[in-house]
Design goal:
Distance between the termini: 93 Å
Number of domains: 2
Strand content: under 5%
Helix content: 55-70%
Order of helices and strands: HHHHHHHHHEEHH
Shape: flat
Length: about 325
């Protein structure tokens, strides 16, 4: 039975109105609880992200501190080595001076047969000086041993500095990509795997694998981070002893002279010189020579990174090799 407008004043009306208010309150509380749960999830994700960032920052700061500490030790050791070298040089000069004075004395005694106090004094001084020569020679030998130890210590410190620097330089400051695996593949001369790793990085950074495309177009080439391009190129050049790398290809490309600088002819000539074309035909990826004996500039397989199997790429080759970051 429906209550009238004044029924709320009756006990039943008051009861029903209270029930309705409780229902609305429960719904509001449930909605607030749902919002709180979502906020807790978001806060949890933010907390995890903050923890990861803090851990990364701590690791980077630790590496930097180790690097600075090692550099400081290197400077101290270099100063010790320099001081040791100076001491050895002083000892050698003293010995040479003594030998020279002895020769002069012999000449003087040959020209003057009569003994005199001046000659006696000179002989006495030389005897004292020459008596020290065995000690000087011994000290020189010890200095040589000490210098060898110093040189070894410097070598070890340089290796530590190089290792720490390499670890910092293998991570792109822009994309955060870690190129340690590429470095390892190149160090072990696994050229094909290194080439595939290079293609994987460049495609992933350019976000070209989102639609199944495994090559870079004009936009991706222009926007590709120069920091990552420089790291990739440096590793290829370093571990091939200057035989492979984008900058090596660029140098060959810059030395090509064709009529009217026709991009199509320049690209074909580049392909011929680095071994990407055989008998006027672009070779397939499996036909590339993944070996250090390959033509200079043969790797990485730039034309395949730029999609030569999809058609003419001379414009994209020009665009990539004209990047100013590619310097030998």
């Amino acid at each position: 039975m429906k209550t009238g407008s004044d029924d709320w004043k009756t006990p039943l009306g008051v009861y029903e109105r209270s029930i309705a208010e409780l229902r609305r309150t429960r719904e509001e509380i449930q909605a607030e609880m749902q919002n709180l749960r979502q906020m807790q999830v978001s806060l949890g994700e933010l907390s995890n992200l903050k923890t990861e960032l803090e851990n990364s920052q701590v690791k980077i700061e630790s590496l930097k501190a180790d690097l600075e500490k090692t550099k400081g030790a290197l400077l101290i050791t270099q100063k010790i080595a320099s001081d040791a070298q100076h001491r050895v040089a002083d000892a050698e000069r003293e010995a040479n001076s003594a030998h020279k004075e002895l020769e002069n004395l012999k000449q003087l005694m040959n020209n003057n047969q009569n003994s005199n106090p001046q000659l006696i004094e000179i002989v006495s001084k030389l005897q004292d000086q020459l008596a020290k020569l065995p000690l000087i020679n011994t000290a020189s030998s010890q200095e040589d041993d000490f210098k060898s130890q110093i040189i070894q210590s410097i070598s070890d410190l340089r290796a530590q500095v190089s290792k720490l620097s390499d670890e910092l330089m293998l991570v792109s400051p822009v994309t955060g990509k870690d190129y340690t695996q590429l470095r390892n593949l190149l160090a072990h001369r696994e050229w094909r795997k290194a080439d595939e790793e290079t293609l994987k990085f460049m495609v992933k950074i350019s976000n070209r694998n989102r639609d199944g495309w495994r090559w870079l177009d004009r936009g991706e080439i222009e926007q590709f981070p120069w920091q990552d391009l420089r790291i990739i190129n440096r590793l290829w050049v370093e571990y091939s002893n200057g035989r492979f790398g984008f900058s090596v290809q660029k140098q060959i490309w810059q030395n090509i002279n064709v009529a009217n600088n026709n991009n199509f002819e320049v690209e074909n000539t580049l392909g011929d010189r680095v071994g990407w074309r055989v008998n006027n035909n672009w070779i397939k990826y499996d036909e590339l020579t993944f070996d250090i004996i390959a033509s200079e500039g043969h790797l990485p397989s730039t034309v395949h990174i730029l999609g030569v199997d999809k058609g003419r790429v001379e414009d994209r080759v020009r665009l990539l090799l004209s990047r100013r970051e590619l310097q030998i």
